[in-house]
Amino acid sequence: SSESFDHDSPKKDAGRMIYYHVANEKGDVEDSSEEFSFPFKGRDVEGLKQKLKEETGLEEIDVCARNPLNGQLYPLRLHLPPNNHDMHIVVVLSLSEG
């Protein structure tokens, strides 16, 4: 019967796993630094930023991803990718202007 067809996989409902490192004051991630993780639903970067503030206890942060071609960090601005693939990100302390 069509009722037995499972079109909602648990992975889809659970969101994605976010794996993150916290960068040092220079914005570098040390090889020995611990990687943390948590499940996250949604695609909103602001929502992810709020969750990371709760997880880290830090207030002024930027959420960055690493460019796979050159390894440089770039800030995530609008939305996370539409799929629910796991993401590896870096939490960087926001620098005050001036």
C-alpha end-to-end distance? 65 Å
Report the β-strand fraction as a percent range: 25-35%
Query: What's the multimeric state?
Result: single chain
Largest beta-sheet characterization: 5 strands, mixed
Mean pLDDT: 82
> What is the β-strand count?
5
* N-to-C series of helices and strands: HEEHEEE
Tell the overall outline. Answer: globular
**Percentage of residues in helical conformation:** 10-25%
Can you walk me through this structure?
By secondary structure, the protein is an alpha+beta fold. It is 17% helix and 29% strand. The protein is built from 2 helices and 5 strands, in the order H-E-E-H-E-E-E. Strands 2-1-5-3-4 form a 5-stranded mixed beta sheet. A hairpin with a 6-residue loop joins strand 3 and strand 4. The protein is globular and about 35 Å long. Residues 1-11 have low confidence and may be disordered.
Which characteristics define this entry?
98 residues, alpha+beta, 5-stranded mixed β-sheet, 2 helices, disordered N terminus
